[in-house]
Amino acid sequence: MTSEAKNRELLLLFFEPDEKPNPAKKEAFLKNVMTGQITRATKITLDRMLLIQVKYIRKMAWLAALMILLAAALITKGNPDSVLQIAALTPLLAFVTEIETRRSYAYGMAELEMTTAFSLRSIRYARFMILGLFDMAVLAGISLLIRKYVAMSVLLTLAHLILPFLLTMIGALLLERTVFGRTHPYGSGVLALLIAVVTEGFLIPDSPVAISFVMYGFGWVLELAAVFLLAAVIALFCANIKQDEEMTAIWN
After folding, report:
1. Contact by Cβ (8 Å): 161, 143
2. Whole-structure pTM value
3. How would DSSP label each residue in 20-84?
């Protein structure tokens, strides 16, 4: 058979119509779709969405909090007098948390994720809530763990741990609103290091500032500051999401 004949045969096979599908269950299928027994998309509940985001969060974000908990446990065994120096590590935890919540933008995946089953807003809220609650639980656990080594209440101990964390979060979220912060997503890591250094001198109990707060009964100021900064972090995060949506809409 010549090549021309082979080509003609291939063309005939190519244009030969396929067999029609068996329509035996077509009517039943359409009826089920119309009555809602079969849906085109599976409805995903809130708990299912949160579970998906838990799996999506990188192990680094979980390990950062657990490493601080481990460090606190080791310090209580070796040098319990300086146990609250663990507060200097919480800015690094805040940095990891913040960068994980904005990973969609850091890797240029924001527009793609806006076309998925969840809105980008719900994804960021979910990650922020999951990691935020996990971090708070770890810091609260550390406060209970080291309470017997410091002459302070659990709430005041937690305030010492959480203040550097919240200050770093506020700085990182403010930086995220700038052009520099958007083009340099890991720039908040430098801010975290600076706050960690400052923490050593101002917020750790054996520093003059912290001793004055405790001695003169002004520990409540630190507790109130922690509540205020927590509210500021939540407000800034919501404002950043709104700004992201507006910028994405303008870009599109």
Report:
1. yes
2. 0.72
3. PP-GGGHHHHHHHHHHTSS-SSPPPPHHHHHHHHHHHS-HHHHHHHHHHHHHHHHHHHH-GGGGG
